[in-house]
Amino acid sequence: MTDFLNINYLKSGTARQQKAFEVLNENLILQKLSEFTPVLVGTIPINIDISSSDLDIACYWKDKNHFIELVRKNFSEENNFHIYEKEISVNEAVVANFFTNDFKIEIFGQNLPVQEQFGFRHMIIEAEILEENGEDFRQQIITLKKLGIKTEPAFAQLLHLKGNPYEALLNFKKI
Predict the structure, then answer these.
(1) Which residue from 59, 68, 93, 174 has the least number of CB within 10 angstroms?
(2) Contact 171, 159 (CB under 8 A)
(3) How far apart are CA 84 and CA 88, in angstroms?
(4) Among residues 125, 103, 108, 110, which one has the least CA distance to residue 49?
């Protein structure tokens, strides 16, 4: 299994993964977030992205206000910068979005270690499922995503999972 905690795997990946590696490094995005253990999560790392897919960066903060301050300091001048707070399964989250080098970037932070966050856990489970089910399954996921179906619901549909697709996927494979 790929070590998703280190983005070096992107260097030998698809053209889009290689471009993501360049953008993250040229803009020092992960370095600017380094105190929050940033990890690239989502569809690009596992090669099920579509043209509208963004670079999702999960972060772990212990002090929400410090995280917000640092994100604003480093990224507020980027195109279409927006930052907001929300709650996900009783956990506070801070989300920042902006555009750089033809990529939409989403920085997602919670007071929860990244490896315990849903985005990371979903990605690991999806990577395992993709590995087990092969290229045809991967292409079916991409097709559903191009039709506007979000990633977790697409997996749930193909795997015939019932109920909330986000929870069903977490229960499908325990990590």
Answers:
(1) 174
(2) no
(3) 13
(4) 103
State the Rg of the chain over Cα. 16
**pLDDT per residue over 67-102, tens digit each?**
999 999 999 999 999 999 998 878 899 999 999 988
User: Tens digits of per-residue pLDDT, 160-170?
Assistant: 999 999 999 98
Q: What is the pTM of this model?
A: 0.94
Kindly report, as residue ranges, where domains of CATH 3.30.460.10 are found in the chain. 7-114
Contact 95, 107 (CB under 8 A): yes
Rounded CA separation 79/71 (Å)? 14
67 three-class SS: helix
Output the six-digit token pair for 63. 């002090």
How far apart CA 3 and CA 87 sit, in angstroms, is 29
Read off the tokens for 80.
């279409």
Q: Please tell me the CATH code under which domain 7-114 is placed.
A: 3.30.460.10
Question: What's the CA gap between 52 and 38, in Å, rounded?
Answer: 22
